[in-house]
Specification:
16% strand, ChaC-like protein, alpha+beta, glutathione specific gamma-glutamylcyclotransferase activity, lyase, 138 residues
Length: 138
């Protein structure tokens, strides 16, 4: 039984930024496969491809890149909620990629590893509450 959950979603907001990783894909066939995979995973779930300006951390160069952004009118967008409600929704949700709580816990782990200077208080508070909820169900 599938129940949609919550994912890290880029929502357009003026004067905001997100830290992330840029992948360079070369070769027509590789590009086609990459976009095909993203189309299946993201676009079919209400996201849209958007070309954005990206500043590379190491060089400071600014390049154009593609990302997927969800509009606030996305049928799968659950909107704002308090942290307890979000944790409960995530604990119960499951999709074709597995339990939603596993996704959020892995996301927090990867943010810590890849961006140690990024103190995403919201994500880490959600992780803390999820770990408590998951432990109580085991």
């Amino acid at each position: 039984l599938f129940q949609p959950g919550r994912v890290a979603t880029l929502v357009e907001e003026e004067d905001s930024f997100a830290t992330g990783i840029v992948f360079e894909v070369r070769g027509e066939e590789n590009i086609r496969q990459a976009f095909g995979h993203l189309w299946e995973r993201e676009i079919n779930n209400g996201y849209e491809f958007v070309e954005i300006r990206v500043e590379l951390a190491e060089s400071g160069d600014v390049i154009n890149a593609w990302t997927c952004i969800a509009g606030l009118d996305n049928e799968f967008y659950l909107g704002d909620a308090d942290i307890e409600q979000m944790a409960g929704e995530i604990r119960r949700a499951k999709g074709c990629a597995g339990p939603n709580f596993e996704y959020v816990l892995k996301l927090a782990e990867h943010v810590r590893q890849l961006f140690p200077e990024d103190q995403d208080e919201h994500l880490f508070e959600l992780e803390y509450r999820l770990r408590r909820l998951v432990a109580s169900y085991v």
